[in-house]
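Page 47, continued from p. 46.
Same chain as before, 270 aa.
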Amino acid sequence: MLLTELEHFIEEDIGYNDVSCIIVPDCKMQAEVISKEDGIAAGLAEATQIFEYFEVFSTTDLTDGSAIRKNDVIFALEGGARPILRAERLALNFLGRMSGIATLTKRYVEKANGTRIACTRKTTPGFRKFEKKAVIAGGGDPHRFNLSDAVLIKDNHIAVMGLEKAIKAAQSTASFTQKIEIEVEDAESAIRAARLGVDIIMFDNMAPDEIEKTIGSLAEEGLRDRIVLEASGGITLDNISDYAGTGVDVISAGALTHSSNWLDVCLRIK
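Result:
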């Protein structure tokens, strides 16, 4: 992360009157960061950077994406007691949040039977790049990082402009490097969008059987092979196998970031 970002996080966490750490003798200590449950590690580089800022020496045998078990040592630490305590919560917050996202993403990936799993822009403001990095650590795809990465024509765009006008406006305005994706809710819209030359079609809140029939219709029209097909909306661990079986190329789920639990990690002074 940028130094300015790191110092903003530190300012938020430490504040201006840190009595709890000042009262601790600043003697040399050893400590460990330990996982209290099974999961997938993420946020290791960010935690390392936090420890380095406080001049705490840290070592780890893990990389982002490594499987970790309950009671595994994630980091071995050595440094002053005060710096370790000041770095503790911020480092654990990054590790817990990012590892939780990576862990949930891995579960989606394992249930998707080879279909690509992607997240969305439903992220915490100011923390998006870290949350999307965690999705990557879990084996997922980050989708677009912001509105400039690709053109996504959503239902509200269509409500304002209509499907055909929205697609043609995007095609005449976007750079050749920007793919154009459109949300559809029925087979007719999907076929119209494919004929108009979009790059990606997202089946939004469509049931698996509807998606499968629509893909069949696209194939009959000779349109299937040149388009990336994505399913999104209401997809959970309980139904993801049904969506993966429809033949879509990508399944996107906001739950990867907005509904993941933190991985439980702690720091213990040795």
